[in-house]
Write a structure and sequence with these properties.
The protein has 14 helices and 22 strands. The protein is α/β, with parallel strands linked by helices. The chain folds into four domains: about 170 residues, 3-Layer(aba) Sandwich (Alpha-D-Glucose-1,6-Bisphosphate, Chain A, domain 3), CATH 3.40.120.10; about 100 residues, 3-Layer(aba) Sandwich (Alpha-D-Glucose-1,6-Bisphosphate, Chain A, domain 3); about 120 residues, Alpha-D-Glucose-1,6-Bisphosphate, subunit A, domain 3 (Alpha-D-Glucose-1,6-Bisphosphate, Chain A, domain 3, 3-Layer(aba) Sandwich), CATH 3.40.120; about 110 residues, 2-Layer Sandwich (TATA-Binding Protein). The strands form four sheets. Strands 1, 2, 3, 4, 5, 6, 7 and 8 form an eight-stranded mixed sheet that branches. Strands 14-13-15-16-17 form a five-stranded mixed sheet, with helices on both faces. Strands 18-22-21-20-19 form a five-stranded antiparallel sheet. Helix 1 packs across helix 2, helix 1 crosses helix 4 and helix 5 crosses helix 6. The protein starts with 7 loop residues before the first strand and ends with a helix.
């Protein structure tokens, strides 16, 4: 029997779908996936307050080899409950949300994806439309909702022959047309205009689902997309990991910009809920990722909305805080996890704060104007609109972040926890680190801080900061370090190594190597 709860990965489901030599056992089986489909249909009908026989669920997938089979099993499970299921084919995660709010008006959407994970892995993300009573709004399932779906997945609701309708639906065309319409309107153009005429943009889709952005959006709007890379979906991911955080992937789009002389490079992850970009420079190309992308979006939104609150994850730099505050905005540094960041922005907004933008350094970015949906394509659309506006003013996109201070050095190291009582042990580590640096000359315990322990260091003790925290899912303690001076990361690592001297079950070898 499948242990369904082990398939949970925060607010997603993740598992092994293809058997490979030396790999983990397949747990996204016909039994488990059919059960999940049936359970989600029951969950959705109850949450939306509708008769399950009227429920319509769309299922999209990225380019993974196992996607068609998992879709077939989900349809089997959904239709066994009396609900209707529609195969949307190749799609993006944002499109599977948008089909619940645009003219298609599906009651729910499922995206079959495992983001940037290896080819043998797969998973699911789930979306619901607004409840029938009008009390609520469309949204993605939260962690507790996934737990409920999985807890019920092995029950009798997955049994029986299909009695609901099974069909097909195109969700990508309405989604793409919505992006086009937004671009045209924001730039004040006529409906049939080509606002990107004379502009050269290259896209690296990493053989995921994002090739549509070049071929079905940029090209019809007049852009030159020559030199774009890996637009053809291929679930083997033969060229590089489809992940804007991956160094090889980012180097690929940097090379595309440098070799083609493009005006802008664009890169997506497999299911297009994350994005990165690259700007040409006199000396090559500048990746717009992590702090730079957040800073650029903050500058764009400040020009549109006035002072805003920018919510980010915990590992953003002090330079980013200074930049955002220099715009007259507020930087609210919160926790890792795109759901954490987005939900915190929603919470602040509900309390009356102008928290219209949330972004994690991984590339997940969400805007209030777009349902707080982490949509990589929409983030790039915002950049493209500002690119055109800046060109009309005789300016450049990069000019908006000219004042962003960059660290001289930065590093990340992961410290494995060797003991079994991970939660208690790491809590003790964090308490000890905070106590160690609380009164130590040259160091400051940064407050407020919502995850782990963040320590600032003066110029003589590292000229920067480090953050030690617990991993969201693994027995690890990641440490991020940044310094404004050469050799500063070494000094920061040495100070933290000293603070951790008494913790024998914490593998400090990676940190000690940094301190050498």
């Amino acid at each position: 029997m499948t242990d369904y709860l082990k398939l949970q990965n925060g607010s997603d489901i993740r598992g092994v779908a293809i058997s490979i030599p030396g790999g983990k056992p397949v747990d996204l089986t016909e039994e488990s996936v059919t059960g999940i489909g049936a359970s989600f249909a029951c969950f959705a009908a109850a949450r939306l307050g509708c008769n399950i026989r009227t429920l319509r669920i769309a299922i999209g997938r990225d380019s993974r080899l196992s996607g068609p089979q998992l879709t077939e099993w989900l349809i089997k499970g959904i239709t066994s409950t009396g609900a209707s299921a529609f195969d949307a084919g190749m799609a993006s995660t944002p499109a599977m949300f948008m089909c619940c709010v645009n003219e298609l008006r599906f009651d729910a959407g499922i995206m079959v994806t495992a983001s940037h994970l290896p080819m043998e892995r797969n998973g699911m993300k789930f979306f619901l439309g607004a409840p029938a009573d009008g009390k609520g709004e469309a949204n993605g399932l939260e962690k507790k909702d996934i737990s409920s779906v999985l807890a019920f997945a092995s029950e009798a609701c997955r049994g029986g022959e299909p009695i609901g309708e099974a069909g097909k639906e195109d969700v990508m065309t309405p989604y793409i047309e919505g992006l086009k319409k937004h671009i045209i309107q924001e730039l004040g153009e006529k409906e049939d205009a080509k606002p990107f005429a004379g502009m050269h943009f290259v896209v690296d889709a990493g053989n995921g689902a994002g090739g549509f952005f070049a071929e079905r959006l940029l090209l019809p709007l007049g852009a030159d997309i020559s030199g774009s890379r890996f637009l053809e979906p291929d679930g083997r991911f033969p060229n590089h990991q489809p992940n804007p955080e991956n160094a090889e992937a980012m180097q690929s789009i940097v090379e595309a910009v440098e070799t083609t002389g493009a005006d802008l490079g664009i890169i997506f992850d497999t299911d297009v809920d994350r994005a990165g970009a690259v700007l040409p420079t006199e000396n090559g190309a500048l990746p717009l990722d992590r702090n730079r992308l957040i800073a650029l979006m903050a500058a764009i939104l400040k020009n549109e909305y006035g002072p805003i609150t920018v919510v980010t994850d915990s590992i953003t730099s002090t330079g980013l805080t200074d930049f955002i505050e220099g715009l007259g905005c507020r930087h609210h540094r919160f926790k890792r996890g795109y759901r954490n960041v987005i939900n915190e922005a929603k919470r602040l907004s509900a309390e009356g704060e102008n928290a219209i933008f949330a972004m994690e350094t991984s590339g997940h970015g969400a805007l209030k104007e777009n349902y707080y949906l982490d949509d990589g394509a929409y983030i790039i659309v915002k950049l493209l609109i500002e690119f055109v506006r800046a060109r009309r003013r005789g300016e450049t996109l990069g000019g908006l972040i000219a004042g962003l201070a960059e660290p001289e050095e930065s590093s990340e190291v992961r410290l494995p926890v060797l003991g079994e009582d991970f939660a208690a042990y790491t809590e003790g580590v964090l308490e000890a680190v905070e106590a160690y640096f609380n009164d130590k000359p040259g160091f400051t315990v940064v407050k407020p801080n919502y995850e782990g322990v963040r320590i600032g260091a003066d110029a003589a003790h590292g000229d920067g900061w480090f953050l030690i925290r617990r991993s969201l899912h693994d027995p690890l303690m990641p440490v991020n370090l940044e310094s404004n001076s050469r050799g500063g990361v070494k000094r920061l690592a040495a100070a933290l190594t000293e603070a951790l001297a008494g913790f024998g079950l914490l593998d400090r070898s990676g940190l000690e190597k940094l301190a050498e």
